[in-house]
Amino acid sequence: MFSDDFIKGRGAQLNISNKFHEHIHEMRDDFLNYCATEGDESSESRTTIIETFPKSIVNKVTSPDVGMDFSLNPYQGCEHGCIYCYARNSHEYWGYSAGLEFEQKILVKRNAVELLEKKLKSRSWKAWPIVLSGNTDCYQPIEKDLKITRSLLQTFLKYRHPVGMITKNALIQRDIDILKELAQDNLINVAISITSLQEETRRILEPRTATIKKRLDTVEKLAQNNIPVSVMMAPIIPSINSHEIMPLVKEISSRGANYVGYTIVRLNGAIGQIFSDWIRKAMPGRADKVLHQIENIHGGSLNDSRFGTRMKGEGEFANQVKQQFKIARKLYLKDCEKPILNCKLHEDFKDGQMKLF
């Protein structure tokens, strides 16, 4: 299935040039041949953690079609390595490649909790749901040691502030104790991202994420603890996971999910080159077919930045996907819907405790 030069355990198969750099670095064939002859590695495969101390942590989301108004990302870059990830492009702003370096160079916002607390105590701040992982996963592997996301959740609970989360990692189960307390006041909604029911598909699309079994178990455990949990089937990729809509929605319904959402794959900026290189190495027999189908969804291009169409696509395939989700929701999630989070408590907890007068 894989070509001979496929890098196992990573999503991106190359580091492309950063468009913001004055100088461009190219991996030449003669250098690669030299490395092969000498038995040297052409690049390091280890993950590097880089500490940062930003001045702010809550971001206003201006895009009208992403379903959130504010986001918070304790980490930049993501070791999960999902090949299609739209967040790859943002890594170029930090001076790194959207390819392998997005997975290997993880920026940690060490003062995230301090900045969030400052924001929530601000007199000018009016409570509105803040979504963790609007860009990169807040439960990626390094979180197991650093526990920044857990501390952020404790801060949201302290100030009784609504928070949303989206993750591909079963590590969220570690924090069920805090999530249960938030849920008691309708302050939390969790979305688990599940792209496929097939483990082989998961392994090549999202190489360092939790297994499908662990993610389905996570949906079930959250629901059993009365924590509102939905599922994002994102993205839908033609001829890779597009045939799984009905069985996936049926499965998550049986696990207790209250809603399912989706997006259709779009390959903006550097992601087009990264994905095209990946699929020719990971699925050489299907590469041309899949790329042509993606182009048909987005008006003949892999790249679509138009608000209103970029997330759902256009044409016959996009309409078929839309109808399948409509039918699936009617069959399996008829009386389910995402909760509207409680924004009324926070004002009385601005100082971290209930105001008595």
UniProtKB/TrEMBL annotation:
Keywords: Iron, Iron-sulfur, Metal-binding. Residues 73-250 form the Radical SAM core domain. Pfam families: Radical_SAM. This is PA0069 family radical SAM protein. It comes from Christiangramia sediminicola.
